[in-house]
TrEMBL record:
Belongs to the Glu/Leu/Phe/Val dehydrogenases family. The lineage of its organism: Bacteria, Pseudomonadati, Myxococcota, Myxococcia, Myxococcales. InterPro entries: Aminoacid_DH-like_N_sf, Glu/Leu/Phe/Val/Trp_DH, Glu/Leu/Phe/Val/Trp_DH_C, Glu/Leu/Phe/Val/Trp_DH_dimer, Glu/Phe/Leu/Val/Trp_DH_bac/arc, NAD(P)-bd_dom_sf. The keyword Oxidoreductase applies. Residues 147-351 form the Glutamate/phenylalanine/leucine/valine/L-tryptophan dehydrogenase C-terminal domain. Gene3D superfamilies: Leucine Dehydrogenase, chain A, domain 1, NAD(P)-binding Rossmann-like Domain. CDD domains: NAD_bind_Leu_Phe_Val_DH. The keyword Nucleus does not apply. Pfam families: ELFV_dehydrog, ELFV_dehydrog_N. Keywords: NAD, Oxidoreductase. This is NAD(P)-binding domain-containing protein. It comes from the Bacteria.
Length: 352
């Protein structure tokens, strides 16, 4: 689809097809202005290869903003391994050959793009890929990598919620505040733990019922059906699943004061930023709120930071958000637009 490329503004897409699984793979390099492109390797089923490509391209653009806003010497990229939704999940035996095929595609780019964990991929997969093509972040600690990004991503989202609460409610205290966490995968689940310890009243939802049951048992939190999550009455809505949850249909139904979560590409279209703004809902731009994972990988592996230094940088995402909120208020624009302005200023300057 030509329109896909026209509106993207990125540099290149490398792609291939895996006979064995019927999966298409796309490595989308959005920008190398600040350095080699980097971003997660997402393993997900799509209804069509085009859907996977579209997702990868959009996610790679968001990564350029994420890298810029957190000062990483990297550009934006994303890899999507698009499984055929008609064929269902890959078996354990198919995963190796599939990732081998991916590693070959990655190697062909010779360092133009670096991969990292994302939805359905983790440090063990990074070890496997690295053995064949060394362009990845976040291998296991045993293999000399920085390991899982989960805890730092969740910390960044938690600090984003605190900053949003400060701006919206005048207090960082979450005691008694109601929070709906949509999607309790690794990051969502880690976030729930932090919220519960901070005294928030948490409600969770997920398409995977076993995950909901496990967390409900562990923390005694309430749950709501996935399709009802966005319209649930609460103080803070935290999308931590897939993208596009904030759209023309869902925004009028929101019954929250704040949206702050870990999901990438929460806005379905750029206009949704204005829709939230008009409704008076404070939105923590996703590429800021979810930047903790990048700070983990880049901080520990490129900047040789200590854990404590990474923690501090991740906590500072909250300060960045307060700057974003103030700019949005002063310029009477949406918060995503304000954050994008701040990020673009850094994108224009190579290796700021
Ligand atoms: N999955 C991470 C994200 O979406 C990507 C990432 C992590 C990139 C760590 C580099 C280092 O932000």
């Amino acid at each position: 689809d030509a329109e896909l490329y026209r509106g993207w503004g990125g540099e290149l897409v490398a792609s291939c097809y895996d006979e064995g699984t019927g999966a298409f793979m796309f490595i989308c390099v959005h920008s190398t202005v600040r350095g080699p492109a980097a971003g997660g390797i997402r393993l997900k089923a799509y209804d069509s290869p085009g859907d996977g490509l579209r997702d990868g391209m959009r996610l790679s653009r968001a990564m350029s903003l994420k890298m810029a806003i957190c000062g990483a010497p990297l550009g934006g990229g994303k890899a999507v391994i698009a499984l055929d939704s008609a064929r269902g999940d890959v078996s354990t035996g198919q995963r190796g050959p599939l990732l081998e095929r991916f590693a070959a595609l990655l190697a062909s780019l010779k360092g133009t793009y670096y991969g990292a964990p994302d939805m359905n991929t983790g440090p063990a997969d990074m070890d496997f890929i690295h053995a064949r093509s060394p362009y990845v972040f976040c291998r296991t600690e045993e293999r000399g990598g920085s390991g899982s990004t989960t805890q730092h991503t969740a910390l960044g989202v938690f600090c984003s919620i605190l900053a949003s609460a400060e701006f919206a409610f005048g207090s960082r205290s979450l005691a008694g505040k109601s929070v709906v966490v949509q999607g309790v995968g690794e990051v969502g689940a880690a976030l729930v733990g932090r919220l519960v310890r901070a005294g928030a009243r948490v409600t969770i939802s997920d398409v995977a019922e076993d995950r909901v049951a496990k967390l409900a048992a562990e923390f005694g939190v309430a749950s709501v059906a996935p399709e009802a999550a966005a319209a649930t009455d609460c103080d803070i809505f935290a999308p931590c699943a897939t993208g596009g949850v904030l759209n023309a249909r869902s925004i009028p139904e929101l019954r929250c004061a704040v949206v702050a979560g870990a999901a990438n590409n929460q806005l379905a279209t750029p206009e949704d930023d204005a829709r939230l703004h008009e409704r008076g809902i404070l939105y923590a731009p996703d590429f800021v709120a979810s930047a903790g994972g990048v700070l983990h990988g880049v901080g520990l592996e490129l900047w040789r930071w200590s854990e404590a230094q990474v923690d501090r940088a991740v906590e500072q995402l909250g300060d960045t958000l307060l700057e974003v909120f103030a700019k949005a208020r002063a310029e009477r624009i949406g918060t995503h637009a304000a954050a994008e302005k701040l990020a673009r200023a850094k994108l224009a300057v190579p290796r700021a």
